[in-house]
Amino acid sequence: MGQSTPQQTPLLAGMPHPGSDTPTAMEEAPPDSGAVGEPAPVPPEPPDTPCLGDAGEGPEPGVGLPEAGPGEEEYYLPAYDFGRPPVLLTGAWAEYGHVPENFLKGCKWAPDGSCLLSNSADNTLRIYDLPPELYSPTGGPAAEMSPVLCMAEGDTIYDYCWFPLMSSAEPSTCLVASSCRDNPIHVWDAFSGELRATYRCYNHLDELTAAHSLCFTPDGAQLFCGSDKTVRVFDTERPGRTCEVRPTFAKRQGQSGIVSCIAFSPVQPVYAAASYARTAALYARADGAPLALLHGHCGGITHLLFAPDGQRLFTGARKDPEVRVWDLRQPGRVLVSLQRRAATNQRIYFDLDPSGRYLVSGDTRGLICAWDTAQPPPGTPEPVLEPALTFQAVPDCVNGISLHPSLPLLASTSGQRVFAAPWDSSDDEDGGSLPPCSHNALQLWWCAIPGGGQEAQPDL
User: Fold this and answer.
1) For 457, which DSSP code?
2) For the segment 214-247, what is each residue's pLDDT rounded down to a tens digit?
3) Residues of 7-32 as b/e, b for ≥16 C-beta within 10 angstroms?
4) Nearest partner of 326 among 297, 302, 361, 300, judged by Cα
5) What spans are recorded as compositionally biased (Pro residues) (predicted)?
6) Is 344 within 8 Å of 416 (Cβ atoms)?
């Protein structure tokens, strides 16, 4: 990806949309089902509002995805193994050494797994292809990774995301959305790097305002954008300023603060929005009706994820030592806490493997931890689940984690802003002591069980 430039087409041309007959990797769900790929039953009461909090239905939290039934397409999950430290395959180091303090700010695999997207402090999005050695039957040493495409923004990038139905076999679906300070939302062509469309948010004074968080709906039909006490909803096929405005806080009730991250339930027409005011909330996708408000973090929430079964919500915050696992069958109940070190205001991502069993996160000490969420929580009033694996990845903050959707590959990013000590002075004869050395890098780790087939470790 990024090495060839196809003929340009209008924005979203060839993309699936409500009412389209275009075959895609994920068939569109029927109205009011909220499901992707397989229809889900419509909640009985009320007709258009998702039913949360029914503790008498569904499997216990931690149960993996169901097996494919007769006539259904079989999907093989990657064989991740976190019983032993992974093997470092390759990475990108020199790419982030040209600019001082060019630390990374996370990474995200493409939905089809063909390439990797990274964000860094130089306000540039970079796309990397998978190392060609992974496709070679003979293997060989992997060279340092180099980006095949760079997309420069004009200011600090707040958030970025892939189009959910992206497939490298269909260039018109290869899109990346990004939002940066004092700028509209940009949609980039992931093949050519050209700007395909912009979506503009305006406040009550008709001033352009930036979106702090972005998330496409699972069917790709809408783009949800979070800002101060507001979620705006754009139709992806209609760029511009026309959008639906959904306040999250009105008449001193609701969810206050800047909406920092958004995620959609994979099984119900529900989305979760978190804010820097230390709360997460559940809303109906159709009209934004509030369903539940979750309190408990001691810092602003910076990342959240739904489990594949839709019954658990994972939230993590800045300057907060825990990732909370919420039981959505009983909204407000915390199943277990996962302890990590998050001592700064930096956003530290975490990710779930496709089965929903393992959660992986970095921390400010340079450690990467993996928790087996299928393990029963300890029988204590405030249960804390111990990690199944902890290893030292780098001597700096690991702020980004992304697990490949079909291969046992873990991508991590590292680095943070480094300040000189306040007592340092350039007037000293030796020029003052230098700040600690940063480790700004993108790295790929192989997390497979020793054996044959996909589970074998590549000879790199």
Assistant:
1) P
2) 999 999 999 999 999 999 999 999 999 999 999 9
3) eeeebbeebbeeeeeeebbbebbeee
4) 297
5) 40-49
6) yes
Report CA 175 to chain centroid distance, whole Å. Answer: 15
Q: Are 248 and 280 in contact (CB under 8 A)?
A: no
Could you tell me which of 151, 163, 152, 162 has the C-alpha nearest to residue 237?
Answer: 163
Quick one: how far is CA 355 from the chain centroid?
A: 16
Q: Kindly state the average pLDDT of the residues 116-134.
A: 94
pLDDT digits (tens, 9 = 90+) for 397-439: 999 999 999 999 999 999 998 776 665 544 444 444 434 557 9
| Residues facing residue 80 across a β-bridge | 448
| Cβ–Cβ < 8 Å for 325, 336 | yes
DSSP of 121-182: TTSEEEEEEPPGGGT-SS--PPPPP--SEEEE-SS-EEEEEE-TT-BTTBGGG-EEEEEETT
pTM of the model: 0.81
CATH code where residue 206 lies: 2.130.10.10
Q: Which domain holds residue 398?
A: 87-418+438-446
Work out how many domains the chain is built from and give that number. 1
The single-letter code of the amino acid at 104 is: L
Under DSSP, is residue 95 helix (H, G, I), strand (E, B) or coil? Answer: helix
Characterise 10 by phi-psi region: left (phi > 0), alpha (psi -120 to 50), beta (else). Answer: beta
Tell me the residue type at 346. Q
Q: Which segments within 255-408 are labelled E, that is strand?
A: 259-264, 270-275, 279-284, 290-295, 301-306, 312-317, 322-327, 333-339, 350-352, 358-362, 367-372, 384-385, 389-392, 398-403
Beta partners for residue 244, in sequence order: 233
Residue 361 near residue 348, CB atoms below 8 Å: yes
Domain membership flag for residue 22 = no
Query: Per the domain annotation, does 55 fall within a domain?
Result: no
Residue 95 has φ and ψ, to the nearest 5°, of: -60, -30
426 within a domain of the structure (yes/no): no
Burial-class residue 57 by CB neighbours within 10 Å (0-12, 13-18, 19+): exposed
Whether 1 is in a domain gets the answer no
Q: Which one, of 175, 186, 38, 159, lies nearest residue 112 by Cα?
A: 175
* DSSP 8-state assignment for residue 96: G
In the block, which residue shows the tokens 């229809």? 39
The dihedral of CA 447, 449, 455, 456: what is its sign?
positive
Tokens 């990475």: give the residue: 91
Cα separation, 403 vs 351, in Å, equals: 7
State both tokens at 241. Answer: 């300023």
